[in-house]
Amino acid sequence: MLSAKSTDGKLYVAGSITDPKSRDYSCIYPSCGEAVSHVSRHQRSGMDWVTEHFRHGAKASHALRKMSGKQGEALEFILSQLAKEYEMEIFTDQIYPTSRGDIATDILAREHLPGGTHQDTLIQVESDTFNFNDYRALDSALTGKNIALMMVLCAEGTNNPNGAFFRDEYRRASGKTVKNLGKNEKALYDQNGINVYYDHDQPSLLIVQFNEYEETLREDIVRGGYRIKEAGDTQTFELKKEPEIKFRYADRFKFRIYQNNQGQLIVRPRKLVINDFFGKEALAKERGDAEKVGDFEERVAIMLDSCNEQELVRLTQKYGAERLGGYAR
């Protein structure tokens, strides 16, 4: 588990817990309350690191989320990035009832918005094979609660050579290097139009699309005495794909929420834009946080300074000269 409560009821979330061995912890669920033990971040073998977490007893009365070392690496990265965002409140280990029973989850990121509203995003990380029917059931249950879901797959790479999921921007079409997409990986892509991966070699989130793999035939294909295709023709393979990285997020990111082809709410990362800092500033003003207001005003001014003339014209048209003028330095 990534969260636990101390004996005085305070919630602790893994990532940067101060003096963790100075207190006792218990499960966050009132119906459970079983004692849990804190596990510090440590190196297990080779280059594998085990992220900070809490170890629950094996006989829990509720659903528990299992976590591999590679899942932990991805979750540690995501938690560290979300912690940078002023408007984010982080919950972990939430359990949701679905048509396939209770499902335990990884991270619930709550984005607080000006005006007292918020938007929830559930982030689920998979490092190994997973049950796609469970994924669909969870997505449907979350959509009913207006919670968007982002599935993150741990990519195969130098630091994850046994990874079940594929991402390699340097591979190009050939019979030896092209990827045969696994059943669940392909099903996820077919439903959502993109896949999100965690790159263990260059810690970052990747948005990947796949191109159809086409191969020039070296000889005729003959079936039942009939020539189906001739040498030199192009043949497309349904499961074979060439990956193409569309976006890489190695640092700060926000969420773009949209509906997939099943009408379910899903999420992909997106780059922070100037309007995000307007939102941070407005939230800080509502909270009476003068120091943060000043920080965000400075950030907007820096962003404006780095814009070229064409970009400044676009921003002025979108936000108005009066509003942007207040940030001029």
In short:
With 329 residues, this protein is of the alpha+beta class. The chain is built from seven helices and 21 strands. The chain folds into three domains: 1-62, no CATH class; 66-271, no CATH class; 276-325, no CATH class.
Protein model, in words:
The structure is a single chain. The chain has 329 residues and is an alpha+beta fold. It has three domains: 1-62, no CATH class; 66-271, no CATH class; 276-325, no CATH class. It contains seven helices and 21 strands. Strands 8-11-12-13-15-16-19-14 form an eight-stranded mixed beta sheet, with helices on both faces. A five-stranded antiparallel beta sheet has the order 2-1-3-4-7, with no helix packed on it. A two-stranded antiparallel sheet has the order 5-6. α4 packs antiparallel against α5 (290-305). Residues 169-173 have low confidence and may be disordered.
Element layout with pairings:
Elements: E1 3-6, E2 11-13, E3 25-26, E4 35-39, E5 42-45, E6 48-50, E7 53-55, H1 69-82, E8 88-92, E9 95-98, E10 101-104, E11 107-113, E12 117-126, H2 132-143, E13 147-154, E14 179-180, H3 183-192, E15 195-199, E16 204-216, E17 221-223, E18 226-229, E19 234-249, E20 254-259, E21 265-270, H4 274-286, H5 290-305, H6 309-319, H7 321-325
Parallel strand pairs: 12-13, 13-15
Antiparallel strand pairs: 1-2, 1-3, 3-4, 4-7, 5-6, 8-11, 9-10, 11-12, 14-19, 15-16, 16-19, 17-18, 20-21
Helix pairs in contact: 4-5
Order of helices and strands: EEEEEEEHEEEEEHEEHEEEEEEEHHHH
Spatial strand sequence of the major β-sheet: 8-11-12-13-15-16-19-14
Structural class: alpha+beta
Main sheet summary: 8 strands, mixed
